[in-house]
Amino acid sequence: MLSEDAKPARTSGRPATIDPEAVAGLALQLFAENGYENTSMEDIAREAGIGRKSLYRYFASKADLVWGGSEPVVEASALAFGSFHREGKPDGGVLAGLREAAIAGAAAIPDLSVTRGRLRLIAEHPELTSHSYESLSFQRERALVFLTDSGLPISSARFLSAAYLAATFEAWMQWAASPDPDPVPYLVAALEVLQVPRGS
Amino acid sequence: MLSEDAKPARTSGRPATIDPEAVAGLALQLFAENGYENTSMEDIAREAGIGRKSLYRYFASKADLVWGGSEPVVEASALAFGSFHREGKPDGGVLAGLREAAIAGAAAIPDLSVTRGRLRLIAEHPELTSHSYESLSFQRERALVFLTDSGLPISSARFLSAAYLAATFEAWMQWAASPDPDPVPYLVAALEVLQVPRGS
DNA sequence: CACCTTATGACACTCTGTGTCATTATGTAA
DNA sequence: TTACATAATGACACAGAGTGTCATAAGGTG
Where in chain B is the domain with CATH 1.10.10.60? Predict the structure, then answer.
């Protein structure tokens, strides 16, 4: 259900010639070389050999070039939420579910060093950091559904999912700033500030 | 120490003729009437009888017209953090301190209905919601200092302050969406999802 | 080969946000 | 009252983000 519109499975028409991942990679490279704000969308398009408008067809905004890479993480995490209830709840309850989802997200990252570069870029730019709220909205929604499915009242579920998102995001940021190879310990530590409200 | 540059206490020169609060109020009114994105900075300036550049002198961005009103809350909250340790810790520990600060912030609001309008506007516009990260960065910093002063390890303190900010923001949003007059119960409920990590 | 679908990019536009600079208004000091 | 200093004001110009329209190109399918 995650890939409802993943690939329209086009049968005819001109096939795409632009590789979004390659373009995003190029953009990250240019950001690293010349700085984020010194690199315009036009610069990126020119360097990629495409038109500015075509660039916007693949990336809704400049921030998307950076945040786009987090989609696999969010998807894997959402998947873990979905399978958690079906497989019968292990011990640890709801918080364990949140933890598993966060770890599943981390496991979905193919190249951690690229992700670290992305996150550091985000950390350096408040406007990119702010974008977390939009970029993680799907994740927030998924966590909320998981929590209400787990029996939490909607109100507590909202607070907990908001805190969960913030804590895990902070964990990623701290990991990115560190030299450690494994983000999981950061995620685990971050989730220790959460608890299910008594009486839920 | 909060008002280090509150008022330069100018001794000569032309005094200001623009009332920022009045301008922000006017802007909020225009946003309510015509929609946020349908109201340009130029529209606001024209309506306020000033130039667009003068508008930017008082408000760094369009979002500032909306978020500016939260400054008193943040300041009052920060003040509560500062006085918490001096007055000897009451019972409840660190979490009680966070709760007191959040409540102090709420108490600093002169007109709750205006704040509710602001928050609803923010809720409707993802780009404004995102701005919370920047607008609350000072609050985040303050909470972090408070937590480390309380003896928490820096790592836990970062996670907890991130979760704290997110939970209280979510509380404000839920309150704004409700018809309830008092935001405090929302804040208290939100903070129940937090805990100090065992062993801190 | 005709056709169809879709990618592509040229063009023009609005709006945000910034920088520069001359002008104006208002205080203080002589 | 007359400088004078200070700061507000806004006119002008600009880069860049993001959007809409539309003609064209390019590759598949029948």
Answer: 20-59
Q: What is the pTM of this model?
A: 0.91
Tell which of B139, B170, B186, B193 to mutate to test the A interface (max A CBs under 10 Å): B193
Q: What is the pLDDT along chain A (200 residues), one digit of tens a residue?
A: 333 333 444 566 677 788 899 999 999 999 999 999 999 999 999 999 998 999 999 999 999 999 998 989 999 999 999 887 766 655 568 999 999 999 999 999 989 999 999 999 999 999 999 999 999 999 999 999 999 999 999 999 999 999 999 999 999 999 999 999 999 999 999 999 999 998 76
Protein side of the strand D interface (CB < 7 A): A 11-15, 17, 39-42, 52-53, 56, 60-63; B 8, 10, 12-18, 49-54, 57
Rounded to whole angstroms, how far apart are CA atoms A165 and A189?
A: 14
CATH topology for the B67-193 domain? Tetracycline Repressor; domain 2 (1.10.357)
Token pair 């903070």: residue: B191
Q: Is B192:A197 a contact under the CB 8 Å cutoff?
A: yes
Rounded to whole angstroms, the Cα distance separating B83 from B76 reads 11
Return the number of CB contacts < 8 Å for A and B.
Answer: 102
Q: Kindly compute the dihedral angle of the four CA atoms of residues B39, B41, B42, B44, in this order, to the nearest 10 degrees.
A: 70
Range A69-191: architecture per CATH: Orthogonal Bundle (1.10)
CATH 1.10.357.10 boundaries in chain A: 69-191
* Check whether domain A20-59 has CATH 1.10.3660.10, yes or no: no
